[in-house]
């Protein structure tokens, strides 16, 4: 007599959970010709100013972005012109001075994983000089300004606000340096830290339209670093109709320009993932976004 075969039953991990049935208008998901691609910019920073993208590239109408890297004792001078500017110190110390202001020693963290940032805000028509007190680098965010805004200001780590978002494997930290209360015309700027292997920007969200109180229109720039620095992450940018459908492997010093679309991301296991997020809005500013209805049931 042959031995009876036993069937081992594994518990269904979905048992006891009610996954909602979602009714969708499938016509909006019909694939259209892709209009945007190659939103990923690689960078190998050199000494001085490193341009990442100019105003108007990648359909970014309110943002110009670059990285400045300086050796100890060197200086770099610029003029904001018709732009407002936000200098986010990534690592090291510096002084920043111009007509009517001098910030003698700012910064302190060794790198983006070593504490909260110092940020220097400069209004339009401001000439300034940055002197490196140690080897240092900073992200230079610029946006065209049509009015006078805040005076030159240092936002210290103590002036920032840190929040935790999500749960389980989409838990992450966000530090906000410039929010809607700060007198900037366009900026809303912060940093994200993603623990090893976690997701961020999830459930997928977008901020493409001014439709208060549900959504506001803000383009966004992501700049990435990793600890250890050979790490990597995955960045998705998409629209339900297929007009945008991009998936990138992002590495140290990469940037993705997000003019529109849902944009979730995740980091590889074993690596802590950092991203500087710079949002710029023409009318409204804030963390007000619309979730992809397919995935909005995930809380």
What does this structure look like?
By secondary structure, the chain is mainly β. The protein has a single domain, classed as Jelly Rolls, CATH 2.60.120. The chain is about 0% helix and about 40% strand. It has no helices and 23 strands. It has strands at about 40, 50-55, 65-70, 75-80, 85-90, 95-100, 100-105, 120, 125-130, 135-145, 155, 160-165, 170-180, 185-195, 200, 205, 220-225, 235-240, 245-250, 255-260, 265, 270-280, 290. It has a seven-stranded antiparallel sheet, with no helix packed on it.
Secondary structure layout:
Elements: E1 40-41, E2 48-53, E3 64-70, E4 75-79, E5 83-91, E6 93-98, E7 101-107, E8 119-122, E9 127-132, E10 136-144, E11 153-155, E12 161-165, E13 172-178, E14 187-194, E15 199-200, E16 205-206, E17 219-227, E18 233-238, E19 245-250, E20 255-258, E21 265-267, E22 272-280, E23 290-291
Antiparallel strand pairs: 1-20, 2-3, 3-10, 4-9, 5-8, 5-10, 6-7, 6-9, 8-11, 12-13, 13-14, 14-22, 15-21, 16-23, 17-20, 17-22, 18-19, 18-21
Query: How many domains, in number, for the residues?
Result: 1
* Low-pLDDT segments, ≥5 res: 1-15, 26-35
Class by alpha and beta content: mainly beta
Secondary structure: helix percent: under 10%
Terminal Cα span: 53 Å
**CATH architecture verdict:** Sandwich
- Main sheet makeup: 7 strands, antiparallel
CATH topology: Jelly Rolls
Shape: globular
SSE sequence, one letter per element: EEEEEEEEEEEEEEEEEEEEEEE
The side-by-side strand order for the widest beta sheet comes to: 1-20-17-22-14-13-12
């Amino acid at each position: 007599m042959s031995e009876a075969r036993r069937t081992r039953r594994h518990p269904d991990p979905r048992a006891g959970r009610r996954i909602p049935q979602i009714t969708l208008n499938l016509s909006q998901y019909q694939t259209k010709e892709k209009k945007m691609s190659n939103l990923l910019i690689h960078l190998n920073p050199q000494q001085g100013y490193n341009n990442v993208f100019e105003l108007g590239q990648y359909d970014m109408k309110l943002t110009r972005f670059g990285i400045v890297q300086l050796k100890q004792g060197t200086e770099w001078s610029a003029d904001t012109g018709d732009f407002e500017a936000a200098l986010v110190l990534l690592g090291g110390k510096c002084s920043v001075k111009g007509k009517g202001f001098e910030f003698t020693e700012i910064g302190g963290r060794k790198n983006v994983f070593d504490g909260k940032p110092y940020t220097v805000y400069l209004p339009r028509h401001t000439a300034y000089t940055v002197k490196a007190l140690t080897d240092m680098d900073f992200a230079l965010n610029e946006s065209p300004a049509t009015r006078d805004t805040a005076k030159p200001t240092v936002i210290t780590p103590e002036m920032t606000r840190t929040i935790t978002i999500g749960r389980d494997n989409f838990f992450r930290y966000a530090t906000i340096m410039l929010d809607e209360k700060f007198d900037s015309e366009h900026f809303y700027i912060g940093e994200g830290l993603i623990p090893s292997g976690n997701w961020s920007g999830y459930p997928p969200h977008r901020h493409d339209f001014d439709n208060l109180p549900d959504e506001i229109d803000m383009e966004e720039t992501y700049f990435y670093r990793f600890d250890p620095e050979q790490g990597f992450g995955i960045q998705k940018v998409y629209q339900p109709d297929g007009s945008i459908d991009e998936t990138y492997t992002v590495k140290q010093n990469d940037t993705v320009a997000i003019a529109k679309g849902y944009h979730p991301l995740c980091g590889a296991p074993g690596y802590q993932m950092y991203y500087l997020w710079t949002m710029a809005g023409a009318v409204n500013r804030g963390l007000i976004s619309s979730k992809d209805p397919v995935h909005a049931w995930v809380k």
